[in-house]
Amino acid sequence: MSSLQNMHCVVLGAGGFLGTNLCRALAPQVASLRAFGRRQSFPGALHGVEWMPGDFADPTSIAAAISGRDTVFHLVNATTPASANIDKLADLQANVASTLRLLEACREEGVKRVVFVSSGGTIYGVPQVVPTPETAPTSPITAYGISKLSIEKYLGLFEYLHGLEYRVLRVANPFGPYQIALKNQGVVAAFMRQCIAGQPIHLWGDGTSVRDYIYVDDVVEALRLSAKHEGPSRVFNIGSGEGRSLLQIIHAIEAESGKSLTVKVSPSRSVDIPKSILDTRLAQEELGWSPKVPFETGIHRTWQWLLAQEDSVGL
């Protein structure tokens, strides 16, 4: 692939958390950038970026979005691990079938590469090895994870059949500015919002489940690098390589906010994996990527951003 400054990119799902951060980083670095999505959570954040509203499930909208683009960042995520299990067929249609239509459109339009954000937390199911490498068995226990894995396989098929290049980033649990946790995803943002509002922290289970949390700027850097990567691998874990329990997240927010938080406990859910930490050595070796932002620094930046937004978004 050419350098970033020669690329004509489109970010699908640009109005969301990762999409907003990616567009802000890419805009000054690429030849042209188009942002596509149903809505912008923070319109001011994408000031100066070409915004194209549309529905990922609409083939006409997708064809227009990728027209004239050589690089497609696929960040669309129509469901969550919990909601996908409730209506598996809807999840399949919203994510897998719509992505298949996207890949056909990319082939017709002459797109060179698709960069897809998969899920480091659900692809592997209950992992046999922790930290978990890309070579570990993939046995998702949610329809969400199965859809992500299916899309990865279809990307491989389209490269084999049509030469459509792809890179997959199996991202852990990203957090940072512009995450608003409206779909019950993103515990850092959800807990911080509840803290600011003086509400009890809603915890599923006993708080001992461990996850790999990574600051959004590090994820964005991995996306940038994957757009121009030329090595043999196609799938990369992107995480901190460190595990933290939900109770540790609560303690970190208490330390940052200076508040003592009340916790409301609900029974654990079948979609929740006890421990998930990613092995990111492959990304270090091939992408030249490693996480740069310490967890505590990320928590501080996220808290400060949320405080600044409190009045404008009604947190």
Describe the structure.
The chain is α/β, with parallel strands linked by helices and 315 residues long. It has one domain: 3-Layer(aba) Sandwich (Rossmann fold), CATH 3.40.50.720. The chain is built from 10 helices and 13 strands. It has helices at residues 17-26, 59-66, 81-86, 88-109, 143-162, 187-196, 216-227, 246-257, 281-287, 295-313; strands at residues 8-12, 32-37, 50-53, 71-74, 113-119, 165-171, 173-175, 201-204, 210-211, 213-215, 235-238, 244-245, 263-266. It has a 7-stranded parallel beta sheet, sandwiched between helices. A two-stranded parallel ribbon has the order 7-10.
Helix content range of the residues, please? 40-55%
Lateral arrangement of strands in the main beta sheet = 3-2-1-4-5-6-11
Largest sheet: 7 strands, parallel
CATH class value: Alpha Beta
Second rung of CATH, namely the architecture: 3-Layer(aba) Sandwich
Radius of gyration: 19 Å
For the record, the count of structural domains works out to: 1
Strand residues, percent? 15-25%
Order of helices and strands: EHEEHEHHEHEEHEEEHEEHEHH
Report the average pLDDT across residues. Answer: 93
